[in-house]
């Protein structure tokens, strides 16, 4: 891989990447705001969609690399309960 010119420091490169990351995050937030969905929730929704009928609370938490009680704080006693889209609880 070719070396970057000496005029660009590692710090400047990382700061540019951070700015791009934040810009994309804020753009995604703006895009999702009409649907009242936070950008952080989008990842969880995508995981649920990809798991389909195999989606359980624990499998979702595992896929998004979070503890079960962080994703579903409303108190789930067992993570094996399947997600039922018709369930109004």
What's the helix and strand layout?
Layout (H helix, E strand, L loop, with lengths): L9 H23 L6 H13 L5 H7 L4 H4 L18
Helix pairs in contact: 2-3
Helix content: 40-55%
Low-pLDDT runs: none
Name the beta content range: under 5%
Radius of gyration: 19 Å
> Quick one: overall form?
elongated
The secondary-structure class comes to mainly alpha
Average pLDDT level: 76
Count of helix runs: 4
Order of helices and strands: HHHH
Give the total of beta strands: 0
Question: Major sheet, described briefly?
Answer: none
Question: Would you kindly provide a brief summary of this structure?
Answer:
This protein has 89 residues and is mainly α.
């Amino acid at each position: 891989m070719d070396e970057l010119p000496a005029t660009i420091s590692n710090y400047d490169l990382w700061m540019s990447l951070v700015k791009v990351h934040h810009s994309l995050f804020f753009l995604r937030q703006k895009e999702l705001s009409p649907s009242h969905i936070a950008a952080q929730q989008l990842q969880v929704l995508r995981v649920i969609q990809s798991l389909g009928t195999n989606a359980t609370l624990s499998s979702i938490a595992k896929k998004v690399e979070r503890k079960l009680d962080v994703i579903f704080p409303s108190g789930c006693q067992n993570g094996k309960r399947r997600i039922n889209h018709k369930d109004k609880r």
